[in-house]
Design brief:
The protein is 31% helix and 42% strand. The protein is an alpha+beta fold.
């Protein structure tokens, strides 16, 4: 596997294993972040959303990386996870993400996900800023 694919795999795996700080460490300080339902957000807001979601998870869950395609330093990945939440509900979402890797960090992240599922589970799509 390439260095870029390794970084994307580690980011996804760290989040699923609730190793939030390890996942965040892979995001460049000037990362251009975008996700379904929110559009462009700052790195800080993206990280706050990720920390909020993962703080609601009862225990690490499986992640399934279905496909990963690389062109240069750009990686497209399709993956899914199932995370049991502290409130007893199941967060079961699928993602299509495009990430650009430079100097060992994610500098661009575009995440497409089922925002209706997020709203159904959490009551709103974008969690309040931390």
């Amino acid at each position: 596997m390439s260095k870029e694919k390794d970084i994307v795999t580690e980011f996804i795996t760290a989040a699923a294993e609730l190793r939030v700080d390890d996942a965040v460490a892979l995001i460049a300080d000037d990362c251009a972040c975008w996700y379904t339902g929110a559009g462009s957000v700052s790195r800080e807001d993206f990280v706050a959303g990720m920390r909020f979601l993962l703080s609601e998870v009862a225990e690490p869950g499986p992640v399934l990386i279905k496909e990963m395609i690389q062109e240069g330093n750009r990686v497209a990945v399709e993956y899914a996870n199932k995370l049991q939440l502290k409130n007893g509900r199941l967060y079961d979402n699928a993602y299509q993400s495009k990430m650009v890797i430079e100097n060992g960090k994610i500098t661009v992240m575009r995440e497409y996900l089922d925002s209706a599922h997020v709203a159904q589970i959490f009551g709103s799509f974008a969690p309040a800023k931390a």
